[in-house]
Design a protein that fits this description.
The protein is of the alpha/beta class. It has 2 domains: 5-36 and 270-401, Lyase, Ornithine Decarboxylase, Chain A, domain 1 (Beta Barrel); 37-268, Alpha-Beta Barrel (TIM Barrel), CATH 3.20.20.10. It contains 12 helices and 19 strands. The chain has helices at residues 18-27, 37-54, 75-80, 90-98, 113-122, 131-140, 165-174, 192-208, 238-251, 266-269, 302-305, 411-414; strands at residues 32-36, 60-65, 84-87, 104-107, 126-128, 147-151, 160-161, 181-185, 215-217, 259-262, 273-283, 290-293, 312-315, 321-322, 327-332, 347-349, 358-361, 383-386, 392-396. Strands 1, 11, 12, 13, 14, 15, 16, 17, 18 and 19 form a 10-stranded mixed beta sheet that branches. An 8-stranded parallel β-barrel has the order 2-3-4-5-6-8-9-10. Strand 18 (383-386) and strand 19 form a beta hairpin. Helix 2 (37-54) packs parallel to helix 9 and helix 8 (192-208) packs parallel to helix 9 (238-251). The longest helix has 18 residues, at 37-54. The termini are far apart.
C-alpha cells in the first residue's frame, strides 16, 4: 500500500502513526501514555456487532468498569455508542457525569449503612455483598430495587456465598420482596470457551433460586492475550460467546424481558494504549544486561506484579523500527531498587540500540497508568489521546517532580 510519510504506521503491529509519534515525543516528551480513540471505538463496536448478530441485542447492556483506566476522556467515546460505566466509589459518578456519562451501575466491596444511603441517593443500581446489607436496605429504603453480588469463586471476594442462597431467598420472602438483579464474576482473563461453560452455572442459580430477576450481570474477566502481536488475535471471541449465551437463554426459556449486563474492561481498553519511553543507556554486565529507560515499574506496577510480559517495539531517533537482535536485557527503570524493571523478564533488544532511541510498550490501556504508585517519588506520566482526526490532545498533564508532597502540611503552615 502506498502511504505518505504522515499516514505511515510505525509498525504493522501498532495503530500508532509515525508522524503522531514524532509529534508526541517532540511536544510532550517521554515517558508518556498514548491512547487512540479510533481503536477504542473499534473495540467497543466489535462487542456491539457481536451482540447484534446474536439475536438478543436488545437484552444486552454494557457497563465499562472505570477503575481499570480511570481517565474519563476514554469514557466519552464509549458513552456516544451507548455504553455505560461501572463505578466503585461515589466520586467516580461525579467525575464521569462531568464528562457526559449518564448510565451507571455500582459494584463495590462491603458497604456500611451510611454508604448504602449514599448510593441510594446517587440512584444507580448498586450490588450489595452480604445478607446484612440487603436487610438494612429493605428496612431503611423499602421501595429500592435489590441488586446483589454472588461469590461463585468461593473466595474472599465480597459477595453472598453459594451456601447462603437458600437463606438469602428466605430473607427476601420474609419481607415479601423479589431480587431485581444479581451479579456473578468468574475470574480474570477467561477464554470464550470457559465463559460459555460458566453460563450454565449462572442460569442454574437463576432457575433454582431467583427466576423473577429483571437482569443478570455477568461482570468482567473477558480474556485478552498480551502475547499476540497481531492486533485482532488478542481479543475475546465475542461472536462465539454471544452465540453460546443465546443458545443457553433459549434452552432455559428465559423471558425476553430479562436483560444481560456485561462489564468488559481489558478487552475494550488494553490495546488502545501504548507507553512511549526513551532509551538512556545500555549497561552491559555479568548476569543480565540492563537497558536503562526513562520509565519505572511504578508507572504501571501490575505488569511486574502479574508477570505480564507486554510486547515492546523499538525505534531509532528517526522513528525507523529496529528489529530485535541477539542482545538480551532487562528494561531497567529510574529507581534504585533492584526490582525496578518496568516489565518482567528479559527482552531481545536491537543490537545497535543507543541513547535517544525509543521504546514503545504495547497494550497498556488497562490496569497501567491508573495504577501509578507514588513509591520511589517518581512522578506520574502524562496521558495523550489521539482523536479520530489524528489530532493529539493532552488529557492528563505530567506530574510535577514534587507532586508526592502536594498535600503535605508545610512546617510554616502548621505553625
Amino acid at each position: 500500500m502506498d502511504m505518505s510519510e504522515s499516514t505511515k504506521l510505525v509498525s504493522k503491529n501498532s495503530w500508532l502513526k509515525k508522524e503522531t509519534l514524532a509529534n508526541v515525543v517532540e511536544t510532550i516528551g517521554t515517558p508518556v501514555f498514548v491512547y487512540n480513540e479510533e481503536r477504542l471505538l473499534k473495540n467497543g463496536q466489535r462487542i456491539l456487532n457481536a451482540a447484534e448478530k446474536s439475536g438478543i441485542r436488545n437484552a444486552i447492556k454494557l457497563f465499562i468498569p472505570f477503575f481499570p483506566n480511570s481517565n474519563p476522556y476514554l469514557f466519552q467515546p464509549l458513552h456516544n455508542i451507548g455504553m455505560g460505566a461501572m463505578i466503585q466509589v461515589p466520586a467516580e459518578h461525579t467525575i464521569l457525569q462531568e464528562f457526559g456519562v449518564d448510565k451507571f451501575i455500582g459494584s463495590t466491596g462491603h458497604l456500611s449503612d451510611s454508604e448504602i444511603d449514599t448510593w441510594v441517593d446517587i440512584g444507580c443500581p448498586i450490588f450489595l455483598s452480604s445478607l446484612s446489607e440487603v436487610e438494612y436496605l429493605i428496612k431503611k429504603h423499602p421501595t429500592e430495587p435489590i441488586h446483589v453480588r454472588f461469590d461463585c469463586l468461593s473466595s474472599d471476594k465480597p459477595g453472598v456465598k453459594y451456601g447462603q442462597l437458600s437463606e438469602f431467598r428466605q430473607l427476601l420472602k420474609s419481607f415479601d420482596r423479589e431480587l431485581d438483579s444479581f451479579e456473578l464474576y468468574c475470574g480474570s482473563s477467561i477464554s470464550a470457551e470457559e465463559m460459555a461453560g460458566f453460563l450454565e452455572q449462572v442460569f442454574m442459580i437463576y432457575k433454582t433460586y431467583f427466576p423473577g430477576v429483571k437482569a443478570i450481570d455477568f461482570a468482567g474477566g473477558y480474556g485478552f492475550d498480551y502475547e499476540f502481536l497481531d492486533q485482532e488475535s488478542k481479543h475475546f471471541e465475542w461472536d462465539q460467546y454471544f452465540r453460546s449465551l443465546t443458545e443457553t437463554v433459549k434452552r432455559h426459556n428465559v423471558p425476553d424481558s430479562v436483560e444481560f449486563w456485561f462489564e468488559p474492561a481489558r478487552d475494550v481498553f488494553a490495546d488502545v494504549g501504548v507507553l512511549v519511553l526513551s532509551v538512556e543507556r545500555l549497561v552491559r554486565q555479568p548476569g543480565a544486561n540492563q537497558l536503562l529507560i526513562d520509565g519505572s515499574r511504578v508507572l504501571m506496577p501490575s505488569a511486574k506484579m502479574k508477570n505480564r510480559a507486554h510486547n515492546v517495539l523499538f525505534f531509532d531517533e528517526n522513528l525507523n523500527e529496529l528489529p530485535p537482535g541477539d542482545t538480551e536485557a532487562m528494561l531497567r527503570g529510574r529507581g534504585i531498587l533492584r526490582h525496578d524493571q518496568i516489565l518482567p523478564g528479559m527482552y531481545q533488544i536491537p543490537d545497535n540500540i543507543k541513547p535517544g532511541d525509543i521504546a514503545v510498550v504495547l497494550d497498556v490501556g488497562a490496569y497501567c497508568a491508573t495504577q501509578h504508585m507514588e513509591f520511589l517519588n517518581i512522578p506520574g506520566a502524562p496521558e495523550v489521546m489521539i482523536d479520530q482526526l489524528e489530532k493529539t490532545k493532552l488529557i492528563t498533564k505530567r506530574a510535577e517532580d514534587t507532586d508526592k508532597w502536594r498535600n503535605l502540611v508545610r512546617a510554616t503552615a502548621a505553625s
